[in-house]
Every structure is written in C-alpha cells, then in structure tokens.
Design brief:
The complex is a heterodimer of chains A (207) and B (115).
Chain A: H1 18-51, H2 62-65, H3 68-94, H4 99-128, H5 137-170, H6 174-206
Chain B: H1 8-41, H2 46-68, H3 78-109
Helix pairs in contact in B: 1-2
The chains are: A mainly alpha (207), B mainly alpha (115).
Family (chain A): Belongs to the cytochrome c oxidase subunit 3 family.
Keywords (chain A): Cell membrane, Membrane, Transmembrane, Transmembrane helix
Main location (chain A): membrane
Amino acid sequence: MSSTPIRHPGLNLGHAHAEAHEASESLVFGFWVFMMSDLIIFGLLFATYVTMLGGTAGGPGPGELFELKSAFIETSLLLVSSFTFGMASLALKYRTDRKVLVGWLVVTLLLGLAFLGHELYDFHKMFTEGGVPSRSGFLSAFFALVPLHGLHVTAASIWLIALLGQIAVHGLDTQTKTGLMRLAILWHFLDVVWIGIFSLVYLGGTA
Amino acid sequence: MSHRQLSDEEAREKAQELRSYCWGFGLAAVLTLIPFGLAAFTQIATATLYWVIGVCGVIQIVVHFRFFLHITLARNKREDLQLILFTVLILTIMVGGTLWILFNLYYRMMPSMIP
C-alpha cells in the first residue's frame, strides 16, 4: 500500500508537501462536510423533480424537450474534465515545475467552460420551444435542479481562474496547494451529481 | 529539472495513483456508454432500460467515489466514510419520505400527477 498516511478525501499530498499535507487535513475535512450538505440539497431537488414529473400542465414534457445527443456531449465533457483535474492533482503532487500543472488546469477549465456553453445553448433551445420555468411544475423543478448544478460549475470555474491567478502571483505555496485540493473535490463531486442528472433527467426522460 | 527526485516508494505510489485515475476514467466511460448506447440504438423494453440506467448510474457513482475522490474502506479514513453514510441516512429518510407522502397523496387525490 501507499506510504502516505491518508488524512482526507481526494488525493493526499504526502511527505514532500509536509506543511500543506498537515494543513489540508482539517481544511479538506471541513470542505467535505460542506460537500455532503450540498449533496443533501441536490438529493432533495432530485426528489422534487421526480414528484413533479407528472405536472406538465399540458406544456412540453421531457420527451419533447430533451435531446440524448447533447446530454451525451455534456456528460463526456464533464467526465474528461474530471480526469484532467486528476492529472493536475498528480502533477501538483509529483512535479516541481508549474507548467504541467497549469497546463492540465487550463485544459480542465476549458472543458468546464465548454460544458457550460453547451448547457446554456440547450436551455436557450428549450426556451424557444416554450420550455420556460414558469410554464409548469415540471419545468420549475427542472430549472431548479439542472441550472443549480450549472451554477456550481460556474462557481468552480471562477475559483479555478482565481487559483491560476494565485499560482501566477504567489507560486505554489501552502494556501494555493490546499485550495487546489479542495477545488479537486468540488470538481469530482460535481461530476458525481451530473451522473444523477444525466441518468434520471435525460436518460429517464427520453427512454 | 521537471520531476522532483522521487524515491522508489514515491515512484511506485505515483504509478499506482496514475493507474487508479485511468481505471476510474475507463470504468466511468464504459458505464456511461452502456445506458446511452442502449437508449439511443436499441429498442429494449422501457422497464429493462430503466433498470440498466439505474444500476449503471449507481455503480458509476461508486467508481467516482473510489477512483476520483479516493474514498475507500480503509481504517484510517473512517470519519469521511461515516460522514457519507450519515448523509446517505438523511437522504434516505428525506427523499424516501418525500416520494412516499407525495405519491400517496397523488394516488388518493390527483391520479393525473402520477407519470
């Protein structure tokens, strides 16, 4: 097994980053508590969505509004971005130069922004087909759940840009490292929530 | 020099972690492709398809927790796991309760709301 004592969820930095490794134990655990409470919010919005599935009030339903192809593209973008963030975490742990780390982070950011762009395009198409939040209980529940995930991705992208700035200005100090550890957890977590969204909302809706 | 001077142990750990991310990515990709492929290209019964989507989704969530978030059953990380289990307990009570009460109401008072 690995020699690093495992202290918190996500990739552990280990001996070579002793100070950041110590600091991240409580920081990452605290962030993990927040992540789990966020999971409860998403879980309940999923439940609300399911109870509202029948409430289309004569408006457009899941069969008319959702497209499997765009859901698949968004899923792929998010899954690949999760992997590239994993590569960034490894570069942070094992390399001293910042080029590889920053490279992976920029790729992750671009994938996240592509996801957001595609999602906004999707919502725009839904709007032109009459799928606005005020149309029915079903659409209200949809626009409470899916854009909330989108807002999380937006916030994570802004945080990533801020961290890139921190790397540029302060270099890889303890604060930057622990920030990256926490953002990694948020990023992977958002991909987990998306599994629920594409399974329940998109695949369940078009099946 | 781009790499830190890695000890043998660290090099092994690095290879192991890289393998873990690659496995996670591969498994997640397969578990995504199965339900999307079935939904897009086949005409299997809807009930079967729902089951496949559900089972693949749950396995994929476990894969993400294990390979990307590094949550395992190891003894030294019990607190994180306990927090997840507590969250799952709360979710089961609240989500299960919501579905139970509302669908019971629909059944008795608004049958049109049952999809």
